Amino acid sequence: MLNTVVLASLLLSLVPVPAPPGPVPPPAEVCDAYCDTRDPALPPSAQRSATRPHVTGPTAPGASATAPSATAPSASAVVCNLHCDGRDPALSTGGRIAQTVPAGTRRVELHFDGGETMGWAVITAGGQGDEVWLDRSFDAGVTWEPKAGATTVPAGNGGWRTLMHNVDDWNNLGVGLLRACGRPAGSSTIACTSWYRTTWNAGDRRTAAATALMQRYDRNTGLFATTGWWNSANALTAIIDNARVSGMGSYRYAIARTYDLNRTAWQGNFVNEYNDDVAWWGLAWIAAYDLTGERRYLDTARAGADHIHRYWDATCGGGIWWTSSRTYKNAIANSLYVQVNAALHNRLPGDSTYLRRARDGWRWFEGSGMVNGSNLVNDGLVTTTCRNNGQTPWSYNQGVPLAALTELHRATGDQAYLARARALADASTTSGALNPGGILFDDGGGGDVPSFKGAYVRGLAALDRALPGRPYLPYLKRQADTAHARDRSSSDSYDQPWAGPFQRSDAARQHSAVDLMNAAG
């Protein structure tokens, strides 16, 4: 029977349609993850860079598919790691069943051998003609290679299994997932397990979260699919931090790949019209320098900091503007300004310029009025009055000042910076509005908000490591334990509310979870 969509298409094709009166204008461009309209005062030329790669295909955060997409391969390519696809499960030296699901009166099972980094599908309690196969995805389950190792139960057997297939594709940097599917003979009903992977590069909750984030890394653009430009800077920072705290270096390749593919984007050296974006990338490259020792990363961060400094002026007594439109002085851009400059000073022997900027930046920030009477940081200033605008005290506005003050303390040895950071941290960790039920939550959607909590816990962890007794570690562990228990999918993806339940994930939500696991580790 024709489905309704096809039938409607056939009927419409029989109806004569008059020709348009003139040329049809091209459709307006839809703003995707590489398009930025946060500041309406900026000209259209600031929304997209000609040097940025264009995105095709689904880009909506949390995009998922219930069937293979049009761009998915029609058949699985053979992957060879320790072994090539098609290895006999009888050769497995040990395994586990990840999940079992019913298929009518049959059972479909997904098996893994972690040592060989391979999996296979099994159908049991069935009979001749039952089908069983694997699906494999290299983009967090958005698309997949269908029916890998597909086979049917032969006569005289009540069950059957596929051959073993690799989860990852090491030669092509593919970070993968498998699921097992089956269909009873004569039935149109297909049953599939959820997406899972072996524990390779996922041996604990820190590395498992990082591996799930890397499933969203676009090897062609060097950015993270399902999220935007500045969010990708935070995602890369989370991956770099994960390599540092966990010792797993499997994804270090993303550092140079991201740098090489995007260094000429926008205005070059990761500079665009948004000063907070420039600073986020600067922090990513400082982290890259710390991990690799490659000077080019530090030089790029320095170029970004010098660019941002051009937007410091006397309006409201000082501070930098959020964007090149010079319409808003806000908390995130200015706290990042302090952190980047202090961090550069701490890595440039003999420097005095960046330290002076950092000190001036904090002195202005502290006196600006953006820190309210509850020691929480509101979003920014009303430009016409230079007063606190009372807007949402987002979590990242609480976390970045902690990292900035920690870098300033490292630069100067002045304990007053740590004391001030502790007062701010005490306020944010105990705020009922920020932590309903004791779990951090930003009440907002869109593409930006899911990244906020990651920046918060990263800053809090930086302060915590600088203090004797690690006073904020219990708070961080509570967040991580709750997210791991309540907000995690079968493939170690995380959603925005760490208190759960899990509904969807994207690279912004996931990097915040990686930041959390790094911080609590």
UniProtKB/TrEMBL annotation:
Family annotation (Gene3D superfamilies): 1.50.10.20
InterPro entries: 6-hairpin_glycosidase_sf, Glyco_hydro_76, MUG_Protein
Keywords: Signal
Compositionally biased spans, kind Low complexity: 56-69
Annotated region described as Disordered, given as residue ranges: 35-69, 482-511
Superkingdom of this protein's organism: Bacteria
Signal sequence interval, chain numbering: 1-19
Protein name as catalogued: Alpha-1,6-mannanase (GH76 family)
Organism: Saccharothrix longispora
Lineage start: Bacteria, Bacillati, Actinomycetota, Actinomycetes, Pseudonocardiales
